[in-house]
Amino acid sequence: MSKRDKKDKELGELLKQGAYDAEPNQWFTHRVLHKLPVKKNNSALHAAWFFYIAAALICLGCWVWLLFFNDTSVITVRHIIYFAATGMTTLILLFSSLVALFRNE
Amino acid sequence: MLSRVEELKLISRCVLGDDRAAFGALVEAYQPRLRRFFLNLTLGDEYLSDDLAQDTFVKAFIELRSFRGMARFGTWLFRIGLNEFYSHKRREHPTTGLDGVDSPTSTPIASSEAALDVKAAMAQLNEVERTVVTLFYLEDMPLKQVAKVMDMKETTLRSHLHRARSKMETILKTN
Q1: Which residue of chain B has the CA closest to A26?
Q2: How far is B77 from chain A (nearest CA, A)?
Q3: How many domains does chain B have?
Q4: In this predicted complex, what is the ipTM?
Q5: Contact residues, A window 11-50, toward B, CB-based 8 Å cutoff
Q6: Which of A9, A90, B37, B174 has its CA 20 to 30 A from that of B75?
Q7: Which domain holds residue B31?
Q8: Per residue of chain B (175 residues), what is the pLDDT tens digit?
Q9: Cα–Cα distance for residue pair B151/B80, rounded to 1 Å
Q10: Closest chain B C-alpha to A46 CA, distance in angstroms
């Protein structure tokens, strides 16, 4: 019965003539739009992402300075502290941005 | 009637930019069909039909991100609408099954005897049969699409359709 036979077409025509039909309602769309959830204010989210990106760039800058503008032929305690601090900051930044991303989803 | 490309453009605007005007355009395009669908399911209850239609659109807006675009938006929308209708029936009659015969909630005001016969014939169908008849005959949906809306196998649908057709033919011939 996937294709309509003659009986199906006749019954369809009869039903269309006699079945219920919706009167035009000019206020329907307006009422639906009023029932929608309140629009999210995304400016706070955009600001948060701006600071995440800025922090990521600063982090990247610190890594570049550490790796390319420091004499790492002799590792000192200062180098270890710098690496540890930069590494921790990078991990915290990655973790918090992932949390913020999934929270927003 | 919106083309598939126009629909997808509007949906993208809604999802990416929370564009309410774009969603309004989708509502305008689909509201006559959806309201007519509910009117025939509820046997002419205008207030209930409009409430169900509004709730369907609101739910569709909330779940718009989950729309994959594999089927037409209309198919997806009618599926949500049908689920809303069944949820409403379960809230009203928690112990009655959906295959039970439903008595009309309002008396149809027919403009002709033929219209009255059609409405009386529809009232004799159970909800599943009435849904199939409404989607297949009134909305001119191919059986494959009806199967997606109702989440049923085509073979099951064909038997519901055959039973509904026999019932309606008997009533319409008698009258």
Answers
A1: B28
A2: 14
A3: 1
A4: 0.79
A5: 11-12, 14-25, 28-29, 31-33, 35-37, 39-40
A6: A9
A7: 4-174
A8: 788 899 999 999 998 888 899 999 999 999 999 999 999 999 999 999 999 999 999 999 999 988 888 888 999 999 999 999 999 988 887 655 444 444 444 444 445 666 678 888 888 899 899 999 999 999 999 999 999 999 999 999 999 999 998 888 888 776 6
A9: 11
A10: 13
